[in-house]
Specification:
glutathione transferase activity; about 350 residues; 4 strands; Glutathione S-transferase Yfyf (Class Pi), Chain A, domain 2; 4-stranded mixed β-sheet; Thioredoxin-like_sf; Glutathione_S-Trfase_N
Length: about 350
């Protein structure tokens, strides 16, 4: 795998594009490019990259739902000492995510201005999107993988020796078959479904995408009415995968992506479920609503050509009581919540209703 051409937008919303900054193709459905660098970092090092604390750097962006997953899982498992993290800013151009949040506009560990540079080190003619999350080998400066579903699964399974004491089991053996089914439907119909609506190139494509999305959301509303978590009675990665879409629903997807049958706040079970997770350490304290809105409304110029970022919605309801405790369940199973967020990784107070 390797780097994208300069006429293909960077970021996490990759499909078949013909000009920089354009995410919709007239007359066509949105098709996500799911070809990623599949190299794995494993305990036995079978792909040439063994688990080694301090060697690898997770490059993420709080704005991106796929990267937000990796940030949440890293924090829940307590991998902060084992895997460092660099954060790109919320916006990017057609070439790459950039480190404009860092002094001098360079990642302080890798010394690069653009994530693209790490992809080019892996493959100089890399033709695909420069996506986050990505894991970079700090000994070479080259990307190891950007395969986002595998990254978080491997955090749970391959990095187990380096988990914090009390880390939850996000991939419980007894629920993996059910998780696979739920994860597949959540990804195709919800995580990617909102993009299929937002980047539809025709009314017909949009109508089909809209119906698919709301069929799935209605299924989730029913499923979560009498159960606290998606699979089993503890938080699993299935919950992480759904949460990052729900957190962006009212601020972005409802209006910007035209997913507007209901707001999340109008779906009792899903809204309470989302608040339950948000108020759980590791979820809300990694969610930056300011960066989320900046990313979508500024980067997607063909959908929002003015680049105006809306002031709303009011986020204070995210910290209201959710009442989900009555359904039972143990958020961390036999484990414990993660400790306080490190000062260097805290979300700014003006970007979250958490205090």
């Amino acid at each position: 795998m390797a780097e994208q051409s300069t006429d293909t937008p960077a970021g996490s919303e990759n499909s078949e594009h013909t000009e920089g900054g354009k995410y919709t193709v007239a007359g066509k459905e949105f098709t996500r490019d799911t070809n990623y660098i599949s190299t794995r970092i494993t305990a036995d090092g079978r792909d040439g990259f063994p688990v080694e604390p301090g060697r690898y750097r997770l490059i993420a962006a709080r704005a991106c739902p796929w990267a937000n997953r990796a940030i949440i899982v890293r924090r829940l498992l307590g991998l902060e000492d084992a895997i460092s993290m660099g954060l790109a800013g919320p916006t990017h151009d057609a070439r790459s995510w950039t480190f404009d949040l860092d002094p001098g506009g360079r990642d302080p560990v890798l010394g690069i201005e653009r994530l693209q540079e790490a992809f080019f080190k892996r493959q100089p003619d890399y033709p695909r999107g420069i996506t986050v999350p990505a894991i970079v080998d700090t000994t070479t400066g080259a990307v190891v993988t950007n395969d986002f579903p595998r990254i978080t699964e491997d955090f749970s399974t391959e990095w187990r020796e380096h988990h914090r004491a009390g880390a939850p089991d996000l991939w419980p053996e007894e629920h993996r078959d059910e998780m696979a089914e739920v994860n597949k439907r959540v990804f195709t119909e919800v995580n990617n479904g909102v993009y299929r609506c937002g980047f539809a190139g025709s009314q017909e494509a949009y109508d089909k995408a809209y119906d698919r999305l709301w069929t799935a959301l209605d299924w989730l509303e029913e499923r979560l009415t009498d159960r606290r978590y998606l699979v089993g009675d503890t938080i699993t990665e299935s919950d992480v995968r759904l949460f990052t879409t729900l957190a962006r629903f009212d601020p972005v997807y409802h209006g910007h992506f035209k997913c507007n049958r209901n707001r999340l706040t109008e779906m009792p079970a899903l809204w309470a479920y989302a608040r339950d997770l948000f108020q759980t350490p590791g979820f809300g304290d990694t969610t930056d609503f300011t960066q989320i809105k900046q990313h979508y409304y500024i980067v997607h110029k063909d959908i929002n050509p003015t680049g105006i970022v809306p002031a709303g919605p009011d986020l204070s309801d995210w910290v209201t009581p959710h009442g989900r405790e009555s359904l039972g369940g143990r958020p961390f199973g036999d484990g414990t919540p993660p400790g306080p967020t490190r000062e260097s990784e805290r979300v700014p107070e003006d970007a979250t209703p958490l205090r």
